[in-house]
Design a protein that fits this description.
The protein is mainly alpha-helical. The protein is built from seven helices and no strands.
Length: 127
């Protein structure tokens, strides 16, 4: 007995678009190393992380070794999706606050303002 499935024109268009975009994501400018990696299994001992993947692993601190390689690769490949989900979970205001603090800390690390101000005061003593 066969089933009859009714699809609207809109449903078919959406399915075709989804298939096309998935195909582009899979084969889009992948280096040979990445294609080889897809063909093999994701065993930890075979996993050779890219530089960015090593940095992503550091996000997990002491639990970095417990995170499966697939998760690390997912985070590397689609960071926008991760940020969007974090915004959905925590709210835009909270994420924006975290980002502002992170940027302020980064600027302060790169430029030691106390030294700059003290050098400026030494060169221009107040009368």
């Amino acid at each position: 007995m066969s089933k009859v499935i009714r699809l609207t024109e809109n449903d078919i268009e959406n399915l075709v678009k989804k298939i096309i975009t998935e195909g582009k994501k899979i084969n889009e400018d992948l280096p040979q190393r990445e294609l080889d990696r897809k063909a093999t299994s994701y065993r930890r001992r075979e996993f050779e992380p890219y530089k960015r993947e090593k940095n992503i692993q550091k996000l997990f601190g002491k639990y970095a070794e417990d995170v499966p390689p697939q998760v690390i690769q997912y985070l590397r490949k689609i960071p926008a999706s991760i940020v969007k989900r974090l915004v959905d979970i925590y709210g835009y205001d909270r994420i924006e606050g975290y980002l502002q603090k992170a940027v302020a800390n980064r600027v302060q690390e790169n430029y030691n303002f106390d030294e700059i101000i003290s050098e400026k005061n030494k060169s221009n003593p107040k009368l």
